[in-house]
């Protein structure tokens, strides 16, 4: 999850609303069409937010590995062990920020 978030320009709320079908490996794009807000998946807020973004090699490799792992739990790419959606703020606080600190060589979050 951290690799996909760091390797793209996705917001955490968009990342958590991705389905497997949103990854077009032949065209090398990620289709952003939905967002998770207050526990509900909806279309993006604006037309401009609905977009295609480049699918880089590192992100592609991480997504394909995830699809083959026991963490692949259903229609949406990233779900909790119980098959529920993560909270975007929790993902930012508990996964992305600590990874960013480590990558920057720091000690604090």
Parts with pLDDT < 50 across at least 5 consecutive residues: none
According to CATH, the homologous superfamily is: Intergrase catalytic core
- Mean pLDDT equals 87
Biggest sheet layout = 3 strands, antiparallel
Assess the beta-strand content as a share of residues.
15-25%
Question: Would you give an account of this structure?
Answer:
- With 109 residues, the chain is of the alpha+beta class.
- It has one domain (2-103): Intergrase catalytic core (hpI Integrase, Chain A), CATH 1.10.443.10.
- It is built from four helices and five strands, in the order H-H-E-E-E-E-E-H-H.
- Strands 1-2-5 form a three-stranded antiparallel sheet, with no helix packed on it. It has a two-stranded antiparallel ribbon with strand order 3-4.
- The longest helix is centred in the last third of the chain and has 17 residues, at 88-104.
- The protein is globular and about 40 Å long.
Compile the SSE list and pairings.
Layout: H1 2-6, H2 12-15, E1 23-24, E2 29-32, E3 34-37, E4 40-43, E5 51-54, H3 57-67, H4 88-104
